[in-house]
Every structure is written in structure tokens, then in C-alpha cells.
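Hi both,

Apologies for the delay on this - the queue was longer than expected. I finally got the zinc ion-bound model through. Below you'll find the protein sequence and the ligand SMILES exactly as submitted, and right after that the C-alpha cells for the full complex including the ligand.
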Amino acid sequence: MTIRIILQSVCAVILLCFGCLNTPGYNCLCASLTNYEVHPTTVTPDGIKVDDSGFVVNLDLLDQETISLEQCLSLSIDRTGFTIKIAPDWFTSPSSGNEGFPCNLRPSECSTAPCACAGAVQPPNTVVLPPSLLAYRHEMIHLVTHANHGDPQFELCENTQPLTGN
Ligand SMILES: [Zn+2]
């Protein structure tokens, strides 16, 4: 009787853990630079979930950029495997004029004051951006290929806009 209960418990634990491992979507093993709550408010025509934080987002541009990135990287991107989060506290940097948002970069890693990120992947699979979306491809390369910052893939496949921060 006792053994049966133990076996049932083991089965339950295995099933629970299987559920854990089965988390859908991409998984970035990256530093957590932001800690936003994410609740998708809309979805692009191609099916990418977006939490717009109340700002206007160019959903068609997100779809176009995703297709361009797929072609450049020669791989297919699962539109349901990640979420876009528009940083609710984004601002325009007085020094660079670029849009960014506060993030937990170390001061030595940060070239702007106040320290800001143009984009970030919030683990496991949320791409955080200001409304300009300039860093979208860059962050997607991190998320989809697990490439390290500075990998030649970035030069090849991200857009040509200058980016600061991560
Ligand atoms: Zn990077």
C-alpha cells in the first residue's frame, strides 16, 4: 500500500516536471536587464503577441522585420514563441536622440547617461523595445540564435541604425 502511494507520487512528480520542461516558445539564457510584467494587448497580422503598454506600435513593421530577419538568417521564426513588450517608461535620450528605457546594465557596460537600453530580451522570451522598434532585429538574433553580442551575425542581419546599450 505504501509503495503504491510512493509510486503514484513519483508519477505525479514526473508529470509535473514534464510540464515544466514543456514551456512553449524560445528561451533566452540571458541576463535579466528588465523585469516588466507582460500582458499582451494585441497581435500582429502574422501572429506575434504584443504588449503595447498603451503606445502606438507599427505592427506591420514588426511582421516585415521578422520576414527580413528570417531571410537573412536562413531560418524560420516561430511567431508564437515570443512576445514583444513596449517599455512603459521609455524615453528619448538627450545625448543620442535615440529611444531607450531604463535597464540593469552595469555602469561599465553603459555608454549613455542616464543608462538606457535600446532593446533587451527579458527571459525567457520577451523582447523589450521602445516604440521605435529599432533594436528589434538585434534582440531577435539574441533570442533565436543565442548569438553573443558582437557575433558577426549582428553585423550581417540587424538593421543599420546605431544602437547603444546591450
Ligand atoms: Zn546585443
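Main takeaway for now: Residues 26-157 form one domain.

I'll put the files on the shared drive as well.

H.
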